[in-house]
Design goal:
alpha/beta, 4-stranded antiparallel sheet, 14 strands, about 15% helix, about 30% strand
């Protein structure tokens, strides 16, 4: 989740439930408080309600939109389409999953052929081992739970260590004590590569420590 190019100048804008369409500009501006709070929960891997996400999107710069990959953003929330969406449908995404939503042409009426999906996370594991991991820096101490939240930069294979518990459960998840990194199972990784998904992922293999 550290690749800022995903979501940059996509040529699409959003409409949230109960609000007007966002203006046709590349500057996203400030979000209302309830949307910003939902965005923060999304980045932690928490499951959101449908109304937390944008209701719909529209294209205001067609050339930019055509260049978008299979992983993009709906407002400040992750979304998928194409081959990536088809791959994800076959894997365990936890309590969340894929939520189909409409994208319209500039007239905000003519619906584009999709399908397009909001990526609703919903799996958080606690298998990350900070003491065995590299390239970490502390973000803050979460006093209510008594643990320290870490962040990373420019990961390479084996920089991150997890316990064997990571192998169970969802194929796409977040780690409770590691910020802004999405984990996926080896089988999901292999399926994404096999499908030749149109997205530039920054993969790094984690090491499993029993």
């Amino acid at each position: 989740m550290t690749d800022s190019s995903i979501g940059d100048r996509q040529g699409i804008r959003e409409k949230h439930f109960g609000l007007d369409w966002a203006p046709p500009t590349f500057n996203l501006g400030l979000s209302p408080k309830h949307i910003f709070e939902a965005h923060l929960r999304h980045r932690k891997g928490e499951k959101l309600e449908r109304t937390d996400f944008p209701e719909a999107m529209y294209v205001f710069a067609e050339g930019n939109w055509k260049r978008c990959g299979d992983l993009f953003t709906a407002g400040t929330f992750y979304a998928v389409k194409g081959k990536l969406a088809e791959v994800l449908k076959n894997f365990d995404l936890g309590e969340g999953g894929l939520i189909e939503f409409p994208i319209y042409e500039a007239d905000k009426t003519t619906q584009l052929p999709g399908p397009f999906y909001l990526l609703n996370f919903g799996a958080i594991k606690d298998s990350f081992i900070p003491s065995e991991s590299k390239k970490l820096y502390s973000r803050r101490r979460i006093e209510i739970n008594g643990y320290e939240l870490s962040a990373t930069y420019k990961l390479e294979d084996d920089d991150i260590a997890v316990t064997a518990a990571a192998l169970g459960g969802a194929d796409l998840w977040f780690e409770r004590k590691l910020e802004d990194n999405i984990f996926m199972s080896g089988r999901l990784h292999d399926a994404i590569l096999a499908a030749k998904v149109k997205t530039k992922f920054q993969f790094a293999k984690a090491q499993i420590i029993d």
